[in-house]
Amino acid sequence: MIDVRAGETYGGRVQIRIGFDLSFEVPQPVPMQLMLYVHPDQAGLLRQPERLVMEPVHPVEDFLDWFGNRAARILAPAGHLRIRYDNVISDSGRPDVPIEGLRLTPVHEMPPECWRYLFASRYCEVDRMVHVAWDLFGKTPETWERVQAVLDWVHGNVAFGYQFARPTKTAFDVYTERQGVCRDFQHLAITFLRALNIPARYVTGYLGDIGVPPAPNPMDFSAWAEAYVGDAWRVIDARHNHPRIGRVLMARGRDAVDVALTTSFGSTNLTEFSVWTEEIPG
Amino acid sequence: MIDVRAGETYGGRVQIRIGFDLSFEVPQPVPMQLMLYVHPDQAGLLRQPERLVMEPVHPVEDFLDWFGNRAARILAPAGHLRIRYDNVISDSGRPDVPIEGLRLTPVHEMPPECWRYLFASRYCEVDRMVHVAWDLFGKTPETWERVQAVLDWVHGNVAFGYQFARPTKTAFDVYTERQGVCRDFQHLAITFLRALNIPARYVTGYLGDIGVPPAPNPMDFSAWAEAYVGDAWRVIDARHNHPRIGRVLMARGRDAVDVALTTSFGSTNLTEFSVWTEEIPG
Amino acid sequence: MIDVRAGETYGGRVQIRIGFDLSFEVPQPVPMQLMLYVHPDQAGLLRQPERLVMEPVHPVEDFLDWFGNRAARILAPAGHLRIRYDNVISDSGRPDVPIEGLRLTPVHEMPPECWRYLFASRYCEVDRMVHVAWDLFGKTPETWERVQAVLDWVHGNVAFGYQFARPTKTAFDVYTERQGVCRDFQHLAITFLRALNIPARYVTGYLGDIGVPPAPNPMDFSAWAEAYVGDAWRVIDARHNHPRIGRVLMARGRDAVDVALTTSFGSTNLTEFSVWTEEIPG
Amino acid sequence: MIDVRAGETYGGRVQIRIGFDLSFEVPQPVPMQLMLYVHPDQAGLLRQPERLVMEPVHPVEDFLDWFGNRAARILAPAGHLRIRYDNVISDSGRPDVPIEGLRLTPVHEMPPECWRYLFASRYCEVDRMVHVAWDLFGKTPETWERVQAVLDWVHGNVAFGYQFARPTKTAFDVYTERQGVCRDFQHLAITFLRALNIPARYVTGYLGDIGVPPAPNPMDFSAWAEAYVGDAWRVIDARHNHPRIGRVLMARGRDAVDVALTTSFGSTNLTEFSVWTEEIPG
Fold first, then answer.
1. Which subunits count as partners of chain D given 3+ CB pairs below 8 Å?
2. Closest approach of chain B CAs to the CA of C185, in angstroms?
3. What residues of C are in contact with residue D115 (Cβ under 8 Å)?
4. What are the residues whose beta carbons fall under 8 Å from the beta carbon of D95, sequence distance 6 or more?
5. CA B10 to CA B5: how far, in whole Å?
């Protein structure tokens, strides 16, 4: 098997099977927002049209949110609700790589639409972390190395564990508790970057163990991030902090608030959950 | 003089002179975002084209942000910077009035673009205030009365004082400290409303003492809010909680992060500040 | 079996076997504080002298802390450390009962040493909860009913679950998240009570399932509290909110900071943990 | 005039006049705790017996709190309340000096009563600052230099300003906002020290401008701290971070909660306030 982490590279495109199977108990009808599609930027690489299969059959209203994500909304009926999806996507096989020496774009040279990703958001209290960020990273060069220093710090100082997840956890909490899940790693890195005047946004998607040893945990959706460096958005990932292939983008936003996979405006219970992301051999 | 608070109403349109004069000391060149224009929704009512007069003369780049606000950005030069604006706007003379009995729009009937104003944001920790909101307001009718109950509660339980302002203050802080400036009143009301599944957004603008006794403090910009009720956005104001005329809209956003009048990506000192909003007699 | 919750009462004293068996991995020598003895107020009811059995054998220095608790301290050696304790205590068999109509002692009539239990502490942010407490409970009578209203509110509004525990969780967090373990229930109740000028202190001890149906979870130490009402300290328990017998007191303090069962000034890992609290038949 | 900051020293004892004059409006009778005496450790140096002069004349009950401070309590009557105090104390004339190279006492060698000053308290969230403290100071030597590094960091990174005071502000807030009054400087330093296993306690007292240029602000009470180093408690002061003479100790505690100069269990308004601390010439 190719080992991306050892520097080996795929010779060409990779076919990845992606999908999920979610079940909910819904005590009474409740509106839900679903961000469960592949992002329009990558949807052209899918083998089949996208479809959320609902049981019971139920109308789904699609819309583009203001970040450009494809979202859906439903009025979930009371009772058991199952949502499934299955597809195959063609991935470039190229790992995201850090680009040493790349210049940080000065704030006044960025397109205005980058600025929104410099501001504070629910889980990224930029205003409270400015001093800390400059204390830690103010002496790094004004290049990709500053971004890398942030990623290295977060990766090196925060311990991963599913038991550390909680819905109200912010970047600030992660900074003091030094524990979290992938969402928490990204929130802290994003907050540091914004405080350093580097636009950063939060991303959700599929990230399978392709080209890396399989993880012991059941497959889950993943979170990573993007930073605006050298006049373009670049993938970053404080959780793994290592080049990966096979990132399938679902949604981008300011932080996890904007791109929750499902948001219920009322009570629902997730009763079953499985996700798959597997390389299709051949 | 007409006294709006006593139920008297203006017979027709009112001409209002608006403007400001701001001075900054800028230690070294710094990018700034300025949200100092009248909002496009009301700009058609201005007597003259809008212009930010800069001293020294300096290029200004205008853009529309993703909320539809007209914003400007500059690379402020080192030294003294002065920004002035003066204009006259024609106001309807009609006060914003509560609409008793108006139905709350169910979440699944709202246009999708309302949903973004149901989510948590930096200063509006909806996720932490859900239980409190339902404890306090869960038994009110599903009409405008629920909105009014929120406004009455915030207005009646929070004390106003300029000394209570601080940049990191959130809705949650306001709820426990019960003190704040107009921004804080609105953040708390917005957070309660979102927790109750009523979209709410934050607004900045001019609000002069028109039809009300003059306030003792020097004139300042103001903040109010909008709630989506009865299939439309309605003005709300937990700070004054009384019908007013002459609200001149500048910008809308999720909370104060999005619509700060000036945002500096580096150090600046505001050295002088005056704002005017006066009815032009005749 | 006697069922205390059904109103049945024990005819007389009950013998309870208590003890624990704890194991730690200690990477390098670390000072530890142990609050693992029965409190001096109840130690006279023990069948045998108290002894912490250490493996390896290790000197233990006992002391009384400033709350009057009996504590021990050790310099834990590197390697495996095991601490055991086993004893039998004679309990009155009388449940703690609410005392309806009992007058709240006015602040200026309390002994000065009660006042320390009116102040804020690490996990009990009284200063931030004063307004909330008076909103919720200000109209209750100035008797035991006010205490009972606090206990009922906390018991009824907070969901119990071991997965909700975290070391930094404060009363304020519990109030907004509405989830927690027994420590969290008590912290919130204590904070409300202090805000209402009722002294309240935090208690740790053994609480077995005596006279109540056995709980499904493995036995653990428990936390409850005491409130100063009617000129005396009274047992309260927002977690169970029902009369119980067989509370074996270990330590009292302002909150969980003061009475942690073990506190390590450096790194240790708890590897095994069992606690027993069983009625001895006959 | 002797200038202590320039290294000049007083040849001998200094006589200092101390006192205050406080007025309150009291809407209805309210219990108050007053920590307005000189601490028993220094009371032997006073020229006259201590007396709180109350207008109207009112009974005062003195007591020692559990930290060993002399406190008073009253049931303040409704109406105007004035409390005055005036005295002269003899000061050693010796500045508090850092003691380079002094060994930090290992935790297990300290007397047990030091340990209470290692724990978290309301305004000193040690549990949330452990990682930050070790990041910043973990490489300093295990001597007085570690304490000095903490004082230098706090002194150098926090800006002083009366407008930055607020009652709920914690060490954690100071760390992120980098602004505060003397209380805030000490809370942050104390929290870092405890996180580093160095006992630290909070102190209030008189600190006049003796041997230093007069400050521009009206005289106020002051706060400093004490750290346990080299087997004894030593004065530290992150606010001034320079040797001073003439510290008149009033009260010690875990943080500002324990030693508030006045605590009201109900509503009172401070209407007038003056404090004096002057060297008596000759």
1. A, B, C
2. 16
3. 33, 73
4. D4, D9, D211, D243, D244, D245
5. 12
pTM of the model: 0.92
B166 CA: distance to closest CA in chain D (Å): 9
Query: What distance separates the 2 farthest-apart alpha carbons in chain A?
Result: 57
Residue A63 pLDDT grade (very low, low, confident, very high; cuts 50, 70, 90)? very high
Distance CA C257, CA C263 (A): 9
Contact A131 D172 (CB under 8 A): no
Asked whether the predicted pLDDT for residue D247 surpasses 80, the reply is yes
Selection from B88, B277, B109, B276 nearest residue B198 by Cα = B109
Q: How far is B229 from chain A (nearest CA, A)?
A: 17
Q: What is the pLDDT of residues A135-165, one digit of tens each?
A: 999 999 999 999 999 999 999 999 999 999 9
How do strand C222-229 and strand D200-207 relate by DSSP bridges? unpaired
Q: Distance from C269 to chain D by nearest Cα, in Å?
A: 17
Q: Is the CB of residue D195 less than 8 Å from the CB of residue D134?
A: yes
CA–CA gap between residue B27 and residue B268 (Å, rounded): 7
Residue range D25-65, pLDDT digits in tens: 999 999 999 999 999 999 999 999 999 999 999 899 999 99
> What does the radius of gyration of chain B's CA atoms come to, in whole angstroms?
19
- The alpha carbon of residue D7 and the mean position of all alpha carbons in its chain are separated, in whole angstroms, by 24
Residue C176 has its nearest CB partner, among B129, B157, B177, at: B129
pLDDT of residue C275 exceeding 70, the answer is yes
Q: Rounded CA gap, D208 and D18, in Å?
A: 9
- The answer to whether the Cβ–Cβ distance between C257 and D33 falls below 8 Å is no
Q: What would the pLDDT profile of C204-214 be if each residue is shown by its tens digit?
A: 999 988 888 88
Indicate whether this complex's ipTM tops 0.90.
Answer: yes
Task: Give the span between the Cα atoms of D168 and B14, in whole angstroms.
Answer: 45
| Packing angle of the helix pair C126-137, C144-157 (nearest 10 deg) | 100
Nearest residue on chain D to C124, judged by CA atoms? D122
* CA atoms within 13 Å, Cβ hemisphere of A69: 28
Which residues of chain C approach chain A closer than 8 Å at the C-beta?
Answer: 163, 166, 168, 176-177
CA nearest to A223, candidates A272, A275, A186, A177: A186
User: What whole-number distance in Å separates Cα of residue A60 and Cα of residue D13?
Assistant: 85
pLDDT above 60 for A82: yes
Residue among C62, C115, C265 with most chain D CBs within 10 A, to mutate: C115
Strands A232-236 and A222-229 turn out to be: antiparallel
Is the pLDDT at D1 greater than 60? The verdict is no
**Mean pLDDT within B130-156:** 97
The helix (run of H) or strand (run of E) holding residue B187 is helix B182-195
Distance between CA D87 and CA D51 in Å, rounded?
9
User: Between residues C50 and B1, which one has the greater pLDDT?
Assistant: C50
Which residues lie below 8 Å from residue A194, measured CB to CB, with a gap of 6+? A117, A118, A119, A120, A124, A126, A200
CA distance C252 to C113: 14
Q: Are D146 and D194 in contact (CB under 8 A)?
A: no
Q: With CA atoms as reference, report the closest residue to C121 among D254, D172, D68, A177.
A: D254
A72 Cβ contact partners less than 8 Å away, ≥ 6 residues apart: A33, A34, A35, A36, A37, A52, A60, A61, A62, A63
Nearest CB to D131 within list A128, A129, A178? A178
Contact B112 A73 (CB under 8 A): yes
Are residues A5 and A241 in contact, defined by beta-carbon separation less than 8 angstroms? Answer: no
Residues of C at the B interface (Cβ-Cβ below 8 Å)? 128-129, 131-132, 135, 157, 172, 175-178
pLDDT at A7: 64
